[in-house]
Amino acid sequence: KVGWYNAVLQPAFHLPYPDDTLAFVVLSTPSMFDKALKPFVNKERLKIIRDPVDQCVSHHLSRLKEKFPDQKVDIIFDYEILPSRKPKFLAQTAAHVAGAAYYYQRKDVKHDPWGKKIYGVCIHPKYGGWFAIRGLVLFPDIQVPFLEQSDPVDCVSTEEKRIELLEQFNFHWQDGRYRNIIEVKERYSEEQKTYFATPPAERFRLLGLTQ
């Protein structure tokens, strides 16, 4: 429910919907690269592609919208920002309140060893850090007052592991070790790792596209 999200954030970040409004958080799993991105690029090869992943997600969520012709459906993508440069929604907070992935933050560590700003990170119980939060799908005309909130799975439950996770994410994020903080069922393929490790301007070549 939108109210779960708004309840944990300052008013500046609130979504402008009634508290009982139904919303879905959309995640991409490791298989998205082969099952969605590559087929999308092959199909759209002759059109202008500026950001393959964003346009692929937009394409699939727009098709989802077509499945509900009688419903108003609002979609907010993770890359969208407001004129103030703030994101349109805080993806990790949304994933946490929806029960999709646990958002580990500085406040989850009792004895804080850091004297600087520390960013939090979501961990999924099945995919660890090998996933992404891509968007929100909202149904403004559907109110669900009786929907019960599910807590996300706390899969990094010890103090030591949480410190290790936040340190790896904040100080060594490039090597991706934080993604394996738990045993995972599936991770990015080597091809996919290479793609996301490549500067955006050079990714077109990997997909066989000209920029």
UniProtKB/TrEMBL annotation:
Q: Which Pfam families match?
A: MMACHC
Quote the InterPro entries the UniProt record gives: MMACHC
UniProt-listed Enzyme Commission number(s):
1.16.1.6, 2.5.1.151
| A GO cellular component annotation in the UniProt record | cytoplasm
GO molecular-function terms, A-Z: cobalamin binding; cyanocobalamin reductase (cyanide-eliminating) (NADP+) activity; demethylase activity; FAD binding
Which coenzymes or cofactors are required?
FMN; FAD
**Keyword annotations:** Cobalamin, Cobalt, Cytoplasm, FAD, Flavoprotein, FMN, NADP, Oxidoreductase
Give GO BP annotations, semicolon-separated. cobalamin metabolic process
Catalyzes what? Answer: apo-[alkylcobalamin reductase] + methylcob(III)alamin + glutathione = S-methyl glutathione + cob(I)alamin-[alkylcobalamin reductase] + H(+); apo-[alkylcobalamin reductase] + adenosylcob(III)alamin + glutathione = S-adenosylglutathione + cob(I)alamin-[alkylcobalamin reductase] + H(+); 2 cob(II)alamin-[cyanocobalamin reductase] + 2 hydrogen cyanide + NADP(+) = 2 cyanocob(III)alamin + 2 apo-[cyanocobalamin reductase] + NADPH + H(+); apo-[alkylcobalamin reductase] + an R-cob(III)alamin + glutathione = cob(I)alamin-[alkylcobalamin reductase] + an S-substituted glutathione + H(+)
Record localization: Cytoplasm
Q: What family classification does the UniProt entry report for this protein?
A: Belongs to the MMACHC family.
What name does UniProt use for this protein?
A: Cyanocobalamin reductase / alkylcobalamin dealkylase
